[in-house]
Amino acid sequence: MTTPRPFDPRSEPLIDEADDETDRYSHLDIAGRRRRSVPEPAPPTSHGPARVIAVANQKGGVGKTTSTINLGAALTEYGRRVLLVDFDPQGALSVGLGVQPHHLETTIYNLLMERGAETDEVIRPTSVEGMDLLPSNIDLSAAEVQLVSEVGREQALGRALKRVLDRYDVVLVDCQPSLGLLTINALACADAVLIPLACEFFSLRGVALLMDTIDKVRERLNPDLEILGILATMFDPRTLHTREVHQRVVEAFGDLVFDAVINRTIRFPETTVAGEPITTWAPTSNGAESYRLLAREVLAR
Questions:
Q1: Residue 33 maps to a domain
Q2: Which residue from 75, 164, 175, 211 could staple onto 56, CB 3.0 to 4.6 Å apart?
Q3: Which residues does 237 contact at the CB level (< 8 Å), separation at least 6?
Q4: CATH code at position 235
Q5: 27 assigned to some structural domain
Q6: SUPFAM superfamilies recorded for this chain (predicted)?
Q7: Peptide bond into 49 cis (omega under 30)
Q8: Is residue 169 a contact partner of residue 50, using CB atoms and an 8 Å limit?
Q9: Structural domains in the chain (count)
Q10: Domain presence at residue 4
Q11: What is this structure's pTM?
């Protein structure tokens, strides 16, 4: 009998990035562990008060916005009411849901800086039933400067969200790629932090700094803040590099690492152009199934 040749990523033929249906690791996580069984969540009997989850990483381009949109949409499939908060002046979350930020008259900025602003005037429905949006645009960049002189500046976002928590089951805050005052606001009002981590070594280097910031927020502003988990994103199972990075993350953080792994695929840029999540754009794709698994893991933690 011929001995099977061991898999060598350097000698395997390249597969087109769009072919995300060829994941040979579907029954395992990428560290080789058997995937933990995550049961289907029971449908909710009522809504609220919401659990606030900050999606944060000071490194840009790691999939924060993509994960916020698609996790939110996946949660609605399990009957949860979800509010997405675009807390980045670039407004990428708003754009990813088909909203043109420069056309908006009221945004999250107005809720932070204007006492008379009404939350209902800013919240917008999305194309996904059960998922709403607090949009943002470049105006939010001024808030970071203006809040410096405000009393209780770290709690500005918490005060704005407090008015609507009873309507939702989960609030997902898409943080900007920095550890400035806006991100501190998100961490100060959050119950938990979800950390998207691109599977590359440069992303690994920034995690320690983020963990240090979370510890400081926990000590000084929000003692109940917890790390919900680390989500491996932009994973390419064909390359040794990304598998090694994921292995190191699992060795360092253990069960904090979600079993759900988000593969690189052309589907995600397509969804941005379409202005809708992958769960509706390509509902049977591996990307959609990965975010459904992530939603089940989030609800189970």
A1: no
A2: 175
A3: 23, 24, 25, 30, 243, 263
A4: 3.40.50.300
A5: no
A6: P-loop containing nucleoside triphosphate hydrolases (SSF52540)
A7: yes
A8: yes
A9: 1
A10: no
A11: 0.88
